[in-house]
Specification:
- By secondary structure, the chain is mainly alpha-helical.
- It has 10 helices and 2 strands; from the N terminus they run ααββαααααααα.
- A two-stranded antiparallel ribbon has the order 1-2.
- Helix 6 runs antiparallel to helix 7 and helix 7 packs across helix 9.
- The longest helix is centred in the middle third of the chain and has 23 residues.
């Protein structure tokens, strides 16, 4: 990583790192057979952050760590992400690649709860998003079910689904048939 970041040859960088270790500015260790370096003096941390670490990378790392903490809270306490934290994750949405299904479920469930960018999150989550929305169609809180129906209707390009909440039995039957064709086994 350092070779790529400072645009140096590996042997040059090794020489500089060795001198920094001998000067007790860095501590060298190994993890899984790879060398790792740790800054010994705390005052260097800010200097390195400012000059070597891209601020966008740092923001993304903070969001990843926050998302991990939120996931732990959800697993233990079943608490959803508050809207302000969801907004921070949303700012980094382009960089969220390869998230496990459980994290997508947390994000989309939180988005539904706060009605925040549900469509965008559902599209990014793909099939997991569709499954979360389908599961929430019959939520006890009608507003959540309406949002889920509307988003599914947009994703599937079936405007009739978003009309499920209208109460018209014919529309409900048509939407139920469309959901059945898409593999949702529930009767609406």
């Amino acid at each position: 990583t350092l070779v790529a970041r400072v645009n140096a040859r590996e042997d040059e960088l090794d020489d500089v790192l060795d001198r920094l270790v001998k000067a007790r500015l860095l501590r060298r260790d190994e993890a899984e057979g790879e060398p790792m370096y740790e800054v010994v003096h705390e005052y260097l941390v800010e200097e390195i952050k400012e000059k070597w670490i891209d601020q966008e990378d740092l923001k993304f790392k903070e969001v990843e760590e926050m998302l991990d903490r939120e996931m732990a809270n959800w697993n233990v306490h079943k608490t959803l992400m508050p809207r302000d934290r969801l907004k921070l994750v949303y700012e980094q949405r382009e960089r969220l690649k390869g998230l496990p299904a459980e994290k997508w479920k947390l994000i989309l469930s939180s988005a539904l709860e706060s009605n925040f960018e549900v469509l965008d999150w559902a599209e990014r989550a793909g099939k997991v998003g569709e499954m979360v929305l389908l599961a929430r169609l019959d939520d006890q809180r009608q507003e959540i079910g309406r949002i889920a129906m509307k988003v599914l209707g947009i994703i599937w390009q079936l405007p009739e689904i978003s009309k499920l909440a209208d109460g018209d039995p014919r529309v409900r039957q048509m939407a139920a048939r469309q959901l059945g064709e898409r593999g949702d086994p529930r009767t609406l």
